[in-house]
Structures are given as structure tokens and as C-alpha cells.
């Protein structure tokens, strides 16, 4: 399944950004979990977008119960601008981003070396 914020889902409506065949395949074969974002009308967009509406049984929306406008887009921008992400992401994720110099120089490096432990595993280890 595709996991996406409401802001990304709205990009499905941007002309020539997503191929219709790709959207049909993603939504029809895999489905999508959409995390609501402040300022986006996920439900309105789902009704208005023909492909999403056609595959609505494969779409699951996670309601935002607490105001949180932190997004991966903002995290990447903060890193690119040399701003702190200390309280935006878990410490293991922050260390991974900095150790591999991700999102520096305007784009994500394609040849970043893999971490010894994944951020998710590292976060779990920190809780033990």
C-alpha cells in the first residue's frame, strides 16, 4: 500500500504529474492509506477525483486527531536549509539523516550508504 499525507494525495490532481495508468495500478492493486494533513480536504478530494473514487474501497483515511503539520517535505527543507530537526523526528531518524547527509544540496543522494540499523529498529532498541 501507498502511505501518503493528504498533501501528496492532492498532487494526484496536478495535470501531467501522475500518469493515470500508474494511479489505477497503485490504487487498484495496492491501495492507499492517507494521513490527513491540516489544510487539506481529503474527503472532498476523494469524491472529486475520478480514479480515487473508482478505487475508494482500497483507500483508508487516518483522521488527524491532534494538530500536527510536520511533514517529510518540511523535514527535507529544514535539513536543506541547515535548520534543526531535533524535535520533528525521532533521534535515530535524525542521526541517520545527518550521518548519511540526506537531503543536502537540493536532492537526496542516490548513493547514500545503508545504515547499520534501520531508524525503525534503532528507535525500538532505544525504548528497551
From TrEMBL:
Pfam families, per database record: CTP_transf_like
GO BP: NAD+ biosynthetic process
InterPro entries: Cyt_trans-like, Euk_NMN_adenylyltrnsfrase, Rossmann-like_a/b/a_fold
GO MF annotation terms: nicotinamide-nucleotide adenylyltransferase activity; nicotinate-nucleotide adenylyltransferase activity
Residue stretches in coiled coil: none
Keyword Transferase: yes
Positions of the Cytidyltransferase-like domain: 2-76
Assigned keywords, A-Z: Nucleotidyltransferase, Transferase
PANTHER family for the chain: NICOTINAMIDE MONONUCLEOTIDE ADENYLYLTRANSFERASE (PTHR12039), NICOTINAMIDE-NUCLEOTIDE ADENYLYLTRANSFERASE (PTHR12039:SF0)
Protein name per its UniProtKB record: Nicotinate (Nicotinamide) nucleotide adenylyltransferase
Organism annotation: Allomyces macrogynus (strain ATCC 38327) (Allomyces javanicus var. macrogynus)
Organism phylogeny: Eukaryota, Fungi, Fungi incertae sedis, Blastocladiomycota, Blastocladiomycetes
Amino acid at each position: 500500500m501507498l502511505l501518503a499525507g493528504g498533501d501528496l494525495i492532492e498532487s494526484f490532481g496536478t495535470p501531467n504529474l501522475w500518469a493515470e495508468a500508474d494511479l489505477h495500478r497503485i490504487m487498484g492493486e495496492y491501495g492507499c492509506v492517507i494521513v490527513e494533513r491540516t489544510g487539506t480536504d481529503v474527503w472532498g478530494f476523494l469524491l472529486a477525483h475520478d480514479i480515487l473514487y473508482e478505487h475508494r474501497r482500497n483507500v483508508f483515511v487516518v483522521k488527524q486527531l491532534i494538530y500536527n503539520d510536520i511533514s517529510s517535505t518540511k523535514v527535507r527543507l529544514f535539513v536543506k536549509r541547515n535548520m534543526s530537526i531535533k524535535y520533528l523526528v525521532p533521534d535515530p531518524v535524525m542521526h541517520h539523516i545527518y550521518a548519511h547527509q540526506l537531503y543536502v544540496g537540493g536532492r537526496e543522494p542516490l548513493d547514500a550508504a545503508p545504515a547499520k540499523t534501520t531508524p525503525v529498529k534503532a528507535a525500538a532498541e532505544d525504548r528497551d
